[in-house]
Each structure stands twice: as structure tokens, then as C-alpha cells.
Amino acid sequence: MSEFFNQYFDFDYMGEHFWEVLEAFLQNLLIFAVVAVLALTWGLILALLRQLPGKKFLPVRFLAIAYIDVFRAIPILIVILLISGGIPFLDFIPKEIRIPHWFGKPDPFWYGVAALMLVYGAFSAEVYRAGIEAVPRGQMEAARSLGMSHGQAMRNVVVPQAISIIPAPMLNEMISLLKDSTLVSVIAFAESVLISRELLAQSFNSSALILTGFFFILIILPLARVVDKLIARNQGKITRGSHIEVA
Amino acid sequence: MRSTRLTALLAVFLLAIASLVVAGCGSSDDDTTGGGGGGGGSEPLTVGSDIPYPPFEQGKAGEYTGFDIELMEAIGEKIGRTAEFQDTSFETIFRDVAQGKFEAVISAATITEEREEAVDFSNPYYLSEQAVLVKEGSDIKSLEEIDGQTVAVQQGTTGQELAKEELGDSEIRPFPEGPDAVNALKAGTVEAVIIDAPVAQNAVEKSGSVEIAEKVPTEEEYGIAVAQGETELLDEINKGLEEVLNDGTYKTIYEKWFKLEPPQEIFNASHEAE
After folding, report:
1. What pLDDT, in 10s, does the model give residues A85-113?
2. Which residues of A touch B174 (CB under 8 A)?
3. Is B176 in Cβ contact with A185 (below 8 Å)?
4. Which of A63, A71, A202, B25 lies at a 20 to 30 A Cα distance from A222?
5. Distance from CA of B265 to the nearest CA of A (A)
């Protein structure tokens, strides 16, 4: 029992390596921030492509659906390994893009960002879709009957209403994204889990992993409370019979 | 509407239960590898190893093979206990053996003073060198020439220590698994890999497009680790190892995996557990 506490809850050890682990954790936050911006944009594009009307856009819809299905199904770890191990071999792409070192960040950082963006783009597209589909059909029909095009109706009528529904489920996705940023350790990017395991290999003490866990809890718990608040707010709207109706 | 939801929920449950059943069946023969007779009625010897690390340990669960695996099976046969292997992660392997998760470790592990604070080692069963692995036709011809370039190593290994000591200006990337480090080299995201010589040799033979620029002697000796104070088990393993060395089994296994004659020094190497 005391062995267990020495191994995982050695607070002196955590103190000694506090700044080292915190610095590594900031790398997780950085991955998270970059991917969040990219994935939320990419997801919205995918969701809108998926909603395009008519026969003309059938192939676009089909491709968007296929993309979303595939990237929701593949384990992220595999996507990370495929991108980091595969992209560098595509020698028709210029080296600066194939093996990127942009903004002073090494290539594993960018491979991780790309992989997480591809996957979380697909997940967030589904959240956007749920939001768009929760807006009653009549809204789109009314907008179209006023002479708006599909694009205008989406932009001015449907998406603004959808946006007010999605924050709670989207925040949940973002919480997963923050945690999944640790997966980039498999391609040797020095984020918090890799640094903790590095410390473990040096000292045979696992407490740095627990310290890393604390950092994640510190960031994620408040976010989880925000999710609760948002859900409660939406519930309130529905019960007050506002314009949003959830089927 | 309600019934569709119920059906969906039921389907998810069934899937979860099915996975449990499948995983359960799998694991019952997962972590055991037949040691080939010898075992008799006595307890199997549980052995931890970080697999894959070819040619020392490789293969699928239940069919593990490699130099370490075959050597451990041969030793097990001599001492009348069937070796059963568990795949585990190298960074935690010494802690796990110290905590009794398995009785012994054979995982291409170098005997170091640091590690001896956590576990006891057998006599050396292998003398090792580190290799500098580079892309075929690379300008790098020695360890010093890598300084300042990006280098891949495997996390927690002697290669990583060597890189830290010798390559002050390099970016060192510690990969959790060796094969991923070699893959990074082939992909061109790192300029060199510093890794155990036999692993490098294996990569040259199996994967191609990489070559060994230099072998660096490190006076490294590999040992089998047991928990501290397990003197009886350690003595038995040492005795088994000695028999395997003397009756030619060692030579056969060595030549099978390294395509080389074993170095003479291994036959009179010994090591005092501290």
C-alpha cells in the first residue's frame, strides 16, 4: 500500500518536477488551441457541405458523409501514426510541407495537429449537423419562401439558431480533444505524458503522471461545469417555449 | 420511436458483452507461451518483456519468439519451469518485477547501477553495442557527426543515455517503441537513430534503405532481472544460464537470431548482484 503511494503520490517528487511537467502540459494546451480552431472551422465546412440541397450536390454530400464516417471510425492513434509515418514519403509535396517546422515547432507537433484536426473535424461536423437539424424545417422553408437562396437561409436563419444549441455538446468534444492531445506522445512530441514517462524511466517513480492528471483535472472540471450551465440554459429556453424546439 | 431506442441500447449492450467474451477467451491463452516440455507439474515462471523489440523479442501474443524468448525458454527447461511471457512497457518493467507482477524480466535490458537499485540482475547473457543507424547513402559516418541534427532513440534505453551524453546540440526524440524510431528515420524526419546494434542490424536486413554508420561499444551487458531479495530464483536462473551456455544451446540460439558467432567473453562473464 505505501509502495503504491510512493510510486504514484510522492508529493516531494511532484514538487521537484512541477515546472518541467507544467511546461510540457502547456504543449498539450497549445496543441488543443491550434486544433480547436482548425477542427471547429473544418467541421462547420463539412456540416454545411453535408446539408447542400438537390441532386446537383449529391456527390459532395456523399463525399462529406463518407469522410465523416471514416474519420469517426478510425482510432486517432492510427491516424497519428499514419500521418507521421506516411506524409513524409510523399515526395511530390515540397519538403517544407511534408516535414513542417513552422513557427519553431517540430514536425511531430504538426503531424499531431493534422491528425487531431482530421478526426475532430468529423466529430464536430456531427455536432453542427445535430444543431442544424434541430432547427425546425419550417424556418428554412419560410426563409426560402421569402426568396432567400439556400446559402442565405443557412447563413442568416438556420446557422444562427443552430449555434445557440451546440455549445454544450461541442464543449464535450473539446474536452475529449484536450485529453487526446496526449496521444501525440507516440510520435515523440514532448508533451506532458511523454515527459512524465521520461521521468518515470529515469527515476522509476510514476508521480509525474499523477501530477499531469491534476493539471488536466484543473482545466477540464471548470469546463464540465460550463457544459452543465449551458445545458440548463437550453432546457430553460425550451420549457419557456422559446424558438428552439428539440425533438 | 421508443422501441427503436430500446433496440439500439440492447444492441450496444450485446456488443459490449460480446467484446468481453471475446477478450476473455483471447487473454486466457494470450500471455502464455509454451516452453516446450520440461515444466512438469511445477509452477510456470512468469517473465515480463517489452515486445516487440526484434530480434530479441517479437511475434504475436501466444507465439512470442526472439533471442531473449528462446533463451529464457531454454533456461526454464533447465530449471524445470515453463516460461510464460507477458508483454509490458519497458519504462515500467523494473518497477513491475519489483512489485511482483511477474517473477523475472528478460527484455534486452542492460545491467546498470541505477537499475540495480530497483532489481537484482543475473549473470550477463548478452554483450551489447549501440549502433548509429542512418539512411542509406547518408553523409553521417560516426556518432560525433550527428551532433546538432535531429536524432531518434527509444525512450528509457541506453541509446537515449548515450545520445544525451554525446549529443549536446541535437534534438533528441524519444519514441515509446523502437520500430517507430526507425520509421521516422526512413521517413526523413530524423537524421539518425541510436539503438541497440542487433536491433539496428535487424532493421537493415528487414526494412532496407537504412544502414549502420558506426557501432559504439558501450561495455553493456544484458541481464535477466528479478525482484530484490529473490536469491533462490536468481541462483536457479544463473545455473540454468550456465548450463545453456555450456551445452551449446546458447550458441545455437545466438547464431539463429544474430547470424554471428557469440563473442568468447560471454562464456566467462559473471556478475555480482548488489
Report:
1. 888 888 888 888 888 888 988 889 999 99
2. 188, 194, 198
3. yes
4. A71
5. 29
Residue A216: other Cβ atoms inside 10 A:
17
Query: What's CA A155's distance to the chain center, in Å?
Result: 23
Dihedral, A156, A161, A162, A164 alpha carbons, nearest 10: 130
Q: What does chain A look like in DSSP terms, one character per residue?
A: -HHHHHHH--HHHHHHTHHHHHHHHHHHHHHHHHHHHHHHHHHHHHHHHHH--SSTTHHHHHHHHHHHHHHHHS-HHHHHHHHHHHGGG-TTS-HHHHS--GGG--HHHHHHHHHHHHHHHHHHHHHHHHHHHHS-HHHHHHHHHTT--HHHHIIIIIHHHHHTTTHHHHHHHHHHHHHHGGGGGGGT---HHHHHHHHHHHHS--HHHHHHHHHHHHHHHHHHHHHHHHHHHHHHHHHTT-S----
Closest-CA residue to B199 (of B32, B31, B35, B50): B50
All structural domains of chain B: 31-125+223-268 (3.40.190.10), 129-220 (3.40.190.10)
Shortest Cα–Cα distance, A146 to chain B (Å): 34
Query: Among residues 71-130 of chain A, which lie with CB inside 8 Å of chain B?
Result: 81, 84-86, 88-89, 99, 106-108
The per-residue b/e assignment along A111-142, b for 16 or more CB within 10 angstroms, e otherwise, is bbbbbbbbbbbbbbbbbbbbbbebbeeeebee
Using an 8 Å CB-CB cutoff, list chain A residues near B95.
7, 204, 206
ipTM > 0.90 (yes/no): no
Ordered DSSP codes for B88-123: --GGGHHHHHHTTSSSEE-SSPBP-HHHHTTEEE-S
Specify the pLDDT at position A202. Answer: 78
What chain A residue is nearest to B156 in terms of C-alpha separation?
A201
Give the pLDDT of residue B104.
96
Report all structural domains of chain A as residue ranges with CATH numbers, in order of start.
2-239 (1.10.3720.10)
